[in-house]
Amino acid sequence: MMVLLLVLPLVGALLMLLWPKIAPLLTLLTATICSLAALQLLLQVSEQGSQQILLAGWPSGLAISLEANSLSCLLILLTTVLQLLVALYAFATYRRDKLGTGFWPLSSLLQLGLTSLWLSRDLFNLYVCLELLGLVAVALVSLSGDKAIKPALNYLLLSLFGSLCYLLGVAMLYGAYGVLDISALALQWQTNILSTAALLLMTLGLMLKAALWPLHGWLPAAHGAAPAPVSALLSALVVKGPLFILCLLWLQLASAPQAVAIAPLFTGCGLAALLLGGVSALRTPFAKNMVAYSTVAQLGYAMLALGLLLRFNQPLFAAALWLFVLAHALAKAACFLAIGEITATLGGKRLNTLKGASQTMPLAMFAFAVAGGSLIGLPPSGGFLAKWALLQGLWLQGDQLLWLLAIVLATLLSAAYVFRVVVLAFDRADPVAPDFAPRILPQWLALLPALAVWAMALYSEPLLRLLKQEGL
Amino acid sequence: MSPFWQQYLPLAIILSSLLPGLIIFTLKETQVKLRISLNLFGVGVKLLLVLLMWQAVKAGQQFYFSLPFLPGADLVLQGDALSLLFVVLSSVLWLATTIYAIGYLEHSPLRSRFFGYFSLCVSATVGLALAGNLVTFLLFYELLTLATFPLVVHRGTAQSLAAGRKYLAYTLGGGVILMLGVALLHSLVQSPLFTPGGYVTAVVSGNEGLLKLAFALMIAGLGVKAALLPLHGWLPQAMVAPAPVSALLHAVAVVKAGAFGIIRLVYDVFGVESMHALQLAQPLMLLAAATILYGSWRALSQQDIKRRLAYSTISQVSYITLGVAMLGPLAAVGGLVHLVHQGVMKITLFFCAGNFAETLGIHKVRQLNGVGRRMPVTAMAFTLGALGMIGIPPTAGFISKWYLGLGAAEVEQNWLILVFALSGLLNAAYFLPLVYRMWFLPQSMPWPQEQQLSNRFETHWMLLTPAVFTAVLLLLMGLFASTELSPLSWAELIVEREFRHD
C-alpha cells in the first residue's frame, strides 16, 4: 500500500510529461486512487498498529525504510484528498485562469514528495524529500508568469539555504554517530555541543522552509503570487512538511534538557507569529496576501503547541499541535480557493474587490466565512477542537495566564482579519454586468474543505484516539 | 409517545427552523410565495413540536439527545422546564416577528438572504435554550453571534457596517472570554449536564480562586450579550438594523441569550449553595443594580425612539440578572418570569416604533405629537407596552416587579427595593412623555415621510397584527397570571424544581 502511494504519483508524473493532453485526467485518476489507498492504509494502521517496510529487500540499515503510523496515515490521507480537490478545482478553471501545463506533473511530484516525507524516518531521506518539495514548490509558484519570477527566485534561494543548513546538520550527526535512522540515532544520542549545534542548524533550516516567524518573510509574496490552486497546496500542505521534521527532531531525537532549553524559543516565536502575523494580515491591502499572512499567524499556534509540549510533556499539547495542522490545512485550502475564485471572477487583487461579494458570489464568500470560522476557532470546527485542547492543557498546567491572554488576543486578531473581509462582503455590491454568471462548481469545491473542517468536530473522538496512539 | 420520538424531539425543534432557513438561502428573490410558505411552515411545525414537548415536560418527562463531541463533553440537547420557558418564548415571538418582517421588508432587496439568516438566528436561539451542558451552550452562543451579524448589517450602509463591526468586536470578544471560562471549568469538573443545584459543589474547597475566576470570566462573556454595565456599548448602536431585527435582538435572541446563560450558570452550574460558599452573589447583584439605574438614566436623555428603547432594554434585562442573583425562590420567580414578560413587552414596543417609522417616517420623540389620532391601534399597543415596562397593573410587567420586590424582602436586601422604586420612577419618566405626546398633544408638524400602506387600516395589516397580538398577550399574561397557562405558573414550576433538589 505504501509503495503504491509512492509509485503511482511518480509514474503519473512521468506519463503526464509524455502525454500533456491527458495530464489533467491522469492527475485526477492518480489522486483518486491514492486517496482510496490512503484511506485503506489508515484503516489498516488504526487496526493493526504502525507498519514498517524496507524497500527492495535490502537489510535494515541499508534499505530505505518507510514507517506508517496513524499520524503519517492521517497526513497522507489529508494530502491526497486535498490534492484531489485542488486538481478538480484546477480542472474546472484551468482554461479561464490559463494555468500552465506544468501544473499537472508538478502537483503529482508534490504529492510524491509529501507522501514520502510523512513516511520517512531517516534524516537523509527526509532531506531528499525536503529538497524535492522545495524545488517543486518553486516551480509551481513560477507558473504565474513574469510577475511571479521575483518571489519565486527569492523562495528558491531561501529554500536552498534552508536545505543546506539542514544538510550540514545531518552531516555533522553522521560524522559523529555514523547512523541517520532517527530511532537508531536516538539510542546513541548524547547531549553535547556537537549534537546541540547540529540540532540548531537543522532547526534554522527547517524554520526557514516552514516560514516560521521570524523567517517567514518569503511566504506572503510567494503564496500571494502563485495561482490559486498552487497557493492552496502550498499553504495547506507544503509548509507542514518541514514542521513535521522539526517535530520529529525535537520530540524523538533531542534529549530532555535540550528539549526544555529550546522550548522558550518555540513558544516565543509562536507567540510573535500569532500576534505580528495577525497584525500584518489585518493591514495588507491585497486579498491573497491577507490569507498568506494568516498562514504565518496560524503556524504560530503549531509552534506554540510544540514549545509547550516540549516544556510540559503534556499529551494534550500534542493533540492540539496536530489538530491545528489538520484544521489549518483544510481551512486554508478553502480560503485560498474561495478568494482565488472571487478575485478571478470579479477581477482585481485588492481586498476592495471583495466588496459586496456576499451578493455577487454568495457561495464562495460563504466558503471563506466558514473556513474563517475555523481559523478563528469558533465551535464546532476543527480549529475550535485544537484551541480547546490547548486551553485544557494550559488550565491543567496552572499559572499560565500569560499564554491564555495571548491566545485570547490572537483569537481576536484572527477574528478581526476574517471579519474585515466578511464586513466588506456585506457592503452593497457595485452593479455587475447583466451577463455576470459566476461558475458554480469551483465555488462548491472551495466550500467542501470548509465544511470538512467543521465536520472534523463531530469526529473528534476517533481523531483524538488516532493522534493519541502516537508518541510523537 | 415512543422513546424514539422523545430522543429526537429537541433536535427536530431546532431543525424545524434550520432546514427551511437553509432552503430559503437557495431561493431566488422573486420566489416570494414559496419563501413565505416555507417560513410559515417552519414556524407552524416548530410551534406544534414545542407544544408536544411542553405537555410532556409538564408531566415530568425529560428529553435528552446527545452526540459525541469533545472528550468529557458531548453535544447534548435537553428539554427541561427552564429550557422550555425560553423555547416557548422564542417560538411564539418568532411567529410574530416573521409576519412582521414579511410586511416590513416587502419590496426591499436581498430578502432571501435576510430570511435565511433570520431562521438561522432563531435556530441558534432555540439550540441555546435546549443546550444540555456548557460546551453545547457555548457552541450555540457563538453560532448566534454569527447568525445575527448579517442581520445587523443587512442594510449595507456605512452606518450599519460600523454598527456591525462594533457588534462583532463586543460579541466575539465576549465569546472568547466565555470559552476561556468554560475551558477552565471543564478542566476542573468536566462539563456534565446542567443539574438543578449545580455540579461544582464537590470541588469548591481548595479551588475557590479558580472557580471565582471561571465565574467572573463566564459572567463577562455572557454579560456582553446581556448588556451588563461596562459591556453594553454595542446595543444602542445596533439600532440601525431594520425594525424586526431590533425586535429580535432585544426581545428574543441576543440579550436574552446572555440573560438565559446567566440563569443557567447561577442555578444549574454553580447552584445556590456554591454561590453562597463562594460569595459570588453580592457582586453580581451590585452590577445588575448599577446597570438597571444606568440604563434608565441614559434612556431619559435619548431623543431617538429606538435608542431610548435600547437603553431601556439594557436596564430591563438586568432585572432578570438581579432576580437570579438574589438567590431566593421568590426573586427567582420574578427574574424568570421577567425573561418572558420583558420579551413580549419590548417586542411590542419595537413593533410599534417600526410601524411609526415605516408609516409616517417618525424616528424622534418630538415627532410623536398627535400620533394617537393618526394611528390609534399602534399607539394603544405602544401605550400598553410602556405601562408594562413601568410596571403598572394589570400588565405583565407588574407581576414580575411584584415578585422581584417580594424576593428582595425575602432575602433581606431592602436596598434593592429602593433600586426598584427609583428605576420604576425613571421608567415612568422616560416612557410617559411619549405616551403623553401621542395622545394629548396636537400634531405640531407634518409627518416626516408618510406612506399609504393600506386602505382599510392605519398601516399594513402585517405590521399591525403582530403588534396587536403581543400587546394583547402582555395584557393577558398580567390578567391571568394565576392560571395554569401563564408564564408565572411555569416559572414557579421551574423554581420549585430548582430549589427542591436538596
UniProtKB/TrEMBL annotation, chain A:
It is a multi-pass membrane protein. The keyword Cell membrane applies. This is Formate hydrogenlyase subunit 3/Multisubunit Na+/H+ antiporter, MnhD subunit. It is found in: Cell membrane; Membrane. It holds the Pfam family Proton_antipo_M. Residues 120-412 form the NADH:quinone oxidoreductase/Mrp antiporter transmembrane domain. GO terms for cellular component: plasma membrane. InterPro entries: CPA3_Na-H_Antiporter_D, ND/Mrp_TM. The chain crosses the membrane at residues 68-92, 124-143, 155-177, 197-219, 231-253, 259-279, 291-310, 316-339, 360-381, 401-419, 440-459. It comes from the Bacteria. GO terms for molecular function: lyase activity. Belongs to the CPA3 antiporters (TC 2.A.63) subunit D family. The keyword Lyase applies. Keywords: Cell membrane, Lyase, Membrane, Transmembrane, Transmembrane helix.
TrEMBL record, chain B:
It comes from the Bacteria. Keywords: Cell membrane, Membrane, Transmembrane, Transmembrane helix. One of its GO terms (cellular component) is plasma membrane. It is a multi-pass membrane protein. The chain crosses the membrane at residues 6-26, 38-57, 81-102, 114-132, 138-155, 167-189, 209-235, 247-267, 279-297, 317-341, 347-365, 377-403, 415-440, 461-481. Residues 75-115 form the NADH-Ubiquinone oxidoreductase (complex I) chain 5 N-terminal domain. Residues 131-424 form the NADH:quinone oxidoreductase/Mrp antiporter transmembrane domain. It is found in: Cell membrane; Membrane. Its main location: membrane. Belongs to the CPA3 antiporters (TC 2.A.63) subunit D family. This is Multicomponent Na+:H+ antiporter subunit D. It comes from Rheinheimera pacifica.
